Amino acid sequence: MEQGSKKVMLKKKIDYGREFVEEHLAIFQCTKCQGTFVEISGNTMICQNNHRFDLSKKGTIHFPDHHMTSDYDKEMLVSRRKMIQKDLYLPIMEEISLLLEQETKKDYIVDMGCGEGSFIDRLVTDFNDQANYLGFDLSKEGVQLGSDFSEDAFFFTGDVTDMPFKNESISTLLNIFSPSHYEEMLRVLKPGGQVIKVIPDAFYLTEMREVFYHDNPEKQSYSNENVYEKFKKDVNLVKEKHLTYKYPVVPEDYEDILKMSPINWGASEKAKAYAKAHPFKELTIDVKILVGKK
Ligand SMILES: C[S@@+](CC[C@H](N)C(=O)[O-])C[C@H]1O[C@@H](n2cnc3c(N)ncnc32)[C@H](O)[C@@H]1O
Ligand SMILES: [Zn+2]
């Protein structure tokens, strides 16, 4: 797919969304009462206690029962999309795809905190299109962008701490650079199901940290120790893989690279100007891929 371009769809987004929830209604549960969904009337999902959730024109649904916002805005998500579509994370996807080989049409793969949805798009398009994919994020803008891939997956606004799924309904949870809530994750996972969590390691985006925090060396380092220890404490870690590589940065991508991560959020205006004026030629991707089984 061309960077930033949209897929040609045969149907309207809302039709893909409605058909998905109609066919897979049994995995969903109401976020207001934890009840079962009993029907879809027009473009509305209705639970046994008559709570109603409407499909948007884009075929997405808003599930959170409480008001929450995400700091990830459209500009950042669009830059992120461009770089993901330009293979910035391809080696990570290749590793993940090996873990999805067993998934079939009966299985559900959920990308928690999916951002703008390109990880799902690339996994479905280039690797395994045999399973049912869902992606959700707290960011409405992310989910709206995700709907460009409505043919691949069902996208909805949701919160990792309160997923609209029945107990033991999901076979794989993807958790890529996004927050976790292990109790909730273990609730929705099937016995034998897996969590695949990608976390930054010490040198992740190190060139970016250096330019944004050249005046603040303390902020140049990063440790994933707490996240890693929490995963091991709460989930049965069955596999882990350390992946490090350098992605070549060409001038035309530099602006998107600088915008695609929250690293710049804490940088001063002066440091942002410094970063623009001192382009780096390669970017380190350094991550751990953790696999937990239920
Ligand atoms: C660093 S981004 C990663 C997005 C995507 N996985 C990717 O790699 O491009 C983290 C994402 O987590 C989402 N997020 C933060 N808190 C969340 C929550 N409680 N529930 C769902 N998503 C959340 C943010 O909106 C953001 O899109
Ligand atoms: Zn309900």
TrEMBL record:
Domain Methyltransferase per the UniProt entry, residue ranges: 109-193
Q: Which UniProt keywords apply?
A: Metal-binding, Methyltransferase, S-adenosyl-L-methionine, Transferase, Zinc
Question: Any idea which GO molecular function terms this record carries?
Answer: metal ion binding; methyltransferase activity
Superkingdom in the source lineage: Bacteria
Per UniProt, S-adenosyl-L-methionine binds at 89, 116-117, 204
Q: Locate the residues binding Zn(2+).
A: 47, 51
SUPFAM superfamilies the UniProt entry points to? S-adenosyl-L-methionine-dependent methyltransferases
TM ranges are none
What protein name applies here?
Answer: Ribosomal RNA large subunit methyltransferase A
